Amino acid sequence: MSTPQTTDPEVIPVPAVDPDSFGPPCAYARLRAEQPVVKAQLPNGETGWLISRYEDARAAFADPRLIRPLLSAWPPREDADAPPPCLPTFLEMTGEHHERVRRTVLPMFGRRRLEFMAPRIRAIAEELIDTMVASAEGGVADLVASYVEPLPLRVLCGTVGLPYEDRERYLPHTLTLLGAAGLSMDEILTALYALQDYAAEVIARKEQEGEGDDYVHQLLAESRRPGSAITRDDVVSFIVTMLMAGYKTNMQHTGNALFALLTHPEQLRRLRDEPEGIGTAVEELLRYVPLMNAINILVAKEDFTLHGQHIRAGDAVVPVPASANRDPQAFADADRLDLTRTPNAHIAFGHGPHACTGGHLTRLQLATVIQVLLERLPGIELAVPAESVPWDESTPLRAPARLPVRW
């Protein structure tokens, strides 16, 4: 992938999350102290430079010398029969293309534009809580299956305009791509092509329906406007991006955030008694609970040196927000959950021009999930010891497979 160096650097495995934990891996504490830039063997067999400190990771996300490669074209293939890459997702767009699309899409996910979703998310949450309570056996229910799992997908479908009833078609491909760092290119391309085809089908349906208030309808209308900054292909990319980033990661983060609260009952009680602190609490949960333990792959456009390590053009660079957000140089008592922490300049959503577009929707969703839960079930607690909670470890971001609770 890169030109050999005179002295080959040590290559380590990407640190693994401790069993029965959402992370981040404890090994990052040593890396931050001793090897803040270190070459690691990535799950797909390639190597990349892990960036574990807050200041370095934040800078890397905004560094113009580092670009996001196409998921469908990295690592690059040199064989003549390599398939053509897929359309870039929003995370992979670069330059003028990225700027014009971002200018159109970003305002749609601003706090004020998302106000229309607040009552819808609350209604979904209340409905799911009612169903969970009604079907509880012996006063115990699984918070994951009843609440955590269905809510993010319904919110995503309601915001973007995706058919919830099609979930069996698109979810398997989105779940495949969550493990893309450990997949073959053929597997990645198969999933991406399938999502692109599905997105094109959704667009065709929307065009037949005529006007609508969801985001796909709005973007299609914008793409037809003379001189528009976006094209029909950009709307396809928007749908694929939202399917990849908007469901499973949010679902797992929500489950982990609720697990964190349930295992810190004194902080949960404080939040119940002082609900006006929900905004600050959400920011701390975004810092403390990883949205992703890894892998954020960037590629160097030119040679440069960082902490004595010579990074060459073409090398992969991997800033790790989960590690950066636990850096004691950036956050006092960084490994402690403190729902009153302020200021809180975490980088859970990345930083710079490719910071997550859906960050405010994630905040709104998590705040509503917690508020409704504490309003409707103020005495909620784990129904089993925390150490006996089973974990879903099928993706880089691990989460409870079940959360038995009582109230």
Automatic annotation (TrEMBL):
Source organism superkingdom: Bacteria
TM segment ranges: none
Coiled-coil stretches noted in the UniProt entry, renumbered to this chain: none
Protein name per UniProt: Cytochrome P450
The family this protein is said to belong to: Belongs to the cytochrome P450 family.
CDD domains: CYP107-like (cd11029)
InterPro entries: Cyt_P450, Cyt_P450_B, Cyt_P450_sf
PANTHER family: CYTOCHROME P450 YJIB-RELATED (PTHR46696:SF1), P450, PUTATIVE (EUROFUNG)-RELATED (PTHR46696)
